[in-house]
Amino acid sequence: MTITDKELENKLAKLGYTRLWLDYGVLTIEYLLAQEQEFDNSDSDDKNTEHYRYGAFKNYLSSKSKLSDKEFENYLKLTLADDDTLMASAVAIDLFRRIDLTEDQFRQLCKTLGHFGEWTNKEAIRQTLLRKLRQGKMTTDLFRECVENGDSVVHECVLEIADINQLHALVLKGKNRRIKTLAAKKLQKLTRKNK
Predict the structure, then answer these.
(1) Does residue 49 contact residue 24 with C-beta atoms inside 8 Å?
(2) Would you call 139 exposed, middle or buried from its count of C-beta atoms within 10 A (0-12, 13-18, 19+)?
């Protein structure tokens, strides 16, 4: 099927895309045509174009475990340019979960998240602490930083590797009742084992 430039522009605009999506390779013409058909055939309830753009972002990441610096830069440019900041922030956060980021990419993503609002700073803190936990040994300083600045997701990760002294601290300072209970149970189990 041959598409004129004008037809292509209309199809892109219908779903809120720009030509950059194609230029950056995040969207293909085939995927665009499939989405347009789905959009045209959908109930009137599902005419939210951000759902289709979110699908294109996810589709793009599904075949990748790493991004070159240029691919990463282009991906962030598209997220920052999107009118739907809630969707755009979600696909930016997907990078943490789906892509093995280099240190520079990780830092850039944390910095970029601030563009989407204050709540994303919490996500940057969470991901920074989780990255530190995955990369190294649990030091006293790292444990303190996780307890003070981490959320329940970070505390659950800490629970997996905490020693007896750290478990005692989590029983008292865990982020929520569940964390405190899990720490207490693990502490009891370790105490019985060491007797």
Answers:
(1) no
(2) exposed
Neighbours of 45 (CB within 10 A): 6
Map out the domains of the chain as residue ranges: 1-117, 121-195
pLDDT score, position 45: 64
pLDDT number for residue 1: 61
Q: Please give the pLDDT value at position 195.
A: 66
> And the tokens for 44?
């009137």
Which structure tokens are listed for 189?
Answer: 């189990």
Q: Give residue 8's Cα distance to chain centre.
A: 31
Q: Which residues of the chain have pLDDT under 70?
A: 1, 44-46, 195
* Token couple for 131: 């990255």
- Alpha carbons 75 and 79: distance in angstroms, whole number: 6
